[in-house]
Amino acid sequence: MMRRIDGSRTGASDDVYRVLLQEEALHANDIPGNINIDEEFVTNFDILDGFGVEESIPMIENRSQEPKSDSDYEGDHEDSDFFIDEENIIEDVEVDMEDFYMNIVPGAETNELSNEAEDIEVIDNDEFDSLSDDSRDTRRRKLLKELGKQKVCSEGEVHNVAFHIGQKYRTKKELKDKVDMHALKTKRSIFFKKNDKARLTAVCTVPVRALQDQLVKKYDVHISEDKVFRAKAVATKVVEGDYTKQYAILRDYVLELQKTNPGTTVKIEVVSEPNPYSSTRQFKRIYVCLGALKKGFKAGIRDFLGLDGAFMKGPFLGQILTAVGVDSNNGIYPLAYAVVESENTSSWKWFLECLGEDLELYSNSNFTFVTDRQNGLDRAIGDLFPHAEHRYCVRHIYQNMRREWKATEYKDFLWKCAKATTIPEFEAIMKDLSIFDKEAYEWLLKIAPHHWARSHFSGRAISDMLLNNLCEMFNSKLVKGRDKPIISCLEFIREYLMKRVVNVMKVLRKSAGPLTPTGNRLLEANSSLASQYRATWNGGQKYQVEGFQNDQHVVDMGSRECTCRKWELTGIPCKHAIATLYEMAKYGEHVGELYTYVHKVYWLDTWKEMYSFNVEPIKGRAMWPKSDCPITLIPPPHHNTPGRPKKKRKITADEKSQRKKGKSQGESSSYNLSRNFLKITCGKCKKTGHNARTCTGRGGN
Prior knowledge:
Blueprint: E1 2-3, E2 9-10, H1 14-26, E3 42-48, E4 54-60, H2 74-77, E5 121-123, H3 125-129, H4 133-148, E6 151-152, E7 158-159, H5 172-186, E8 189-192, E9 199-205, H6 208-219, H7 225-240, H8 245-248, H9 250-260, E10 265-270, E11 280-289, H10 291-299, E12 304-311, E13 319-326, E14 332-340, H11 345-359, E15 368-371, H12 377-384, E16 389-392, H13 394-401, H14 408-419, H15 423-436, H16 438-445, H17 469-477, H18 486-509, H19 517-530, E17 534-537, E18 542-546, E19 552-556, E20 561-562, H20 566-570, H21 575-586, H22 604-610, E21 632-634, H23 653-661
Parallel strand pairs: 3-9, 11-21, 12-15, 15-16
Antiparallel strand pairs: 1-2, 3-4, 5-8, 6-7, 8-9, 10-11, 11-14, 12-13, 13-14, 17-18, 18-19, 19-20
């Protein structure tokens, strides 16, 4: 090994630097782990380094701050062109997956990498190092002296500035200042991700140049940037798990999953191999339905599922197909998931065949699906379940509609038609649309109303849901798992489902019943309206119910139906039915408790039964059973996508226009802004018509 003139050594191999770099990666942050303290005043503060080591430190909030009301968040999430199904708001619990890791390679832990860097505040050590030697040394000594001082926290406890479990902070500024000093002491660039009242997240970025400087300072070794880049890639592969090798042990993972979770269905399909004597087969698809979720879904007694797909983000591209139900509290209930080669008729048909076997569905089953009309899915459902009710997400119908008709009036017509619960009401709105625009009416008429209008829905799903928010919400939880190797991705989903069951159980234990919180909310809303209606008995089982604005319907208490069809569609007594019950009780008839007229789907006991089945944990890689299958799985074809891999889903043109217009109202705001008539001002000469990059000195020096 040779020594340079400056005293540093050179000539070490990539393997040596990989080991050094791996140690730096796995021990990049020595801050201790998560803690739980007074929840009333504490927010979690996360420190996440470039290799995903995350910690949480509590911070005491200012008690004078009031929580935001619902109206404060309206502009952040919704605007005038998005549909809001107020009667079917999806209720779901938060599941923290930031600490997920998958130990596949012995001796190495898999940690998360954070690639998000929006709305950030950066603490840049490069700027500090650019100071003169004298001023830098003086300033650093002063800061390090400050770091070494002991301080008394709000609880009267004496702490050093180093982070540890139990520290508390009075304000967010105090905590941020401390992180700043920690960055200077450790010579790392730390940025604060966008934070709110509930969380303050700091991330340490470790670029190639920073790793190069760190190794030179620590080991007195000169390393080229190319060598650091290669060593970092090898270390990252060890830390995250090898994408190719995980396919070879996929069958071992399946055996462990089925052993620890009884009743779990896992099916693997491979690409057909012309050589029958080949010892390898190329992976094509995998389907997973956990036994606990299968039992819980059947206990929920609601034959309703949303279907959707999302892209994988790793080197081996594919799609994650999901089937998501609705629980008794209108929360998502993920049932099954699969990783397939692409979203087409063949893959969807295979997924639905597996799902049908688990749920014992046949060609004559009266099941209900809601989809976004994905490629091949419509045909697959029609072939396998011709008697099933197939609903289309109204929002996606509108996205196609607004390509030709962008004014908000068309959106209003579509939404009114979809929400109408009776055929006469639906036909009246469609007639108004035909008068307003004949072409739009004829376009919408081509989509059969039984796919998207409540007036043509059957009541067997016990849900009048119009949007496929179920799958979209579930897929949003899987974003950080979709760029992982195959087993790590499947484990990310399983661990999320395991944690979610536990979090729902915590909410469930606080519920009084006899209905779920959502069931109570919907019933109380109808009860408050029922006082404005008058019921008249016909001497049998039927009542004529009248209200304001000529709202008059007939309630049949024998069949528990109302001609408005809302009771039939949702399973919750409508305002007309409740007014009838009030009338019956008024004249001494025994009607019992009001909740007994609500379908058992919304009963608290049903909710408890759904979540009485736990997703079981699994053991580490070294303790998995070994598959005796002589065929080795190899990964699907490799795809090198240009540019940096994208984790977030592609934003539609509709959503882009909504984000641009913000809270603005009116038809003109439905269009994207144009740059045709914008005036460009040069930053150098202050003249219009060109920018500083193309300035040639016109009109100025």
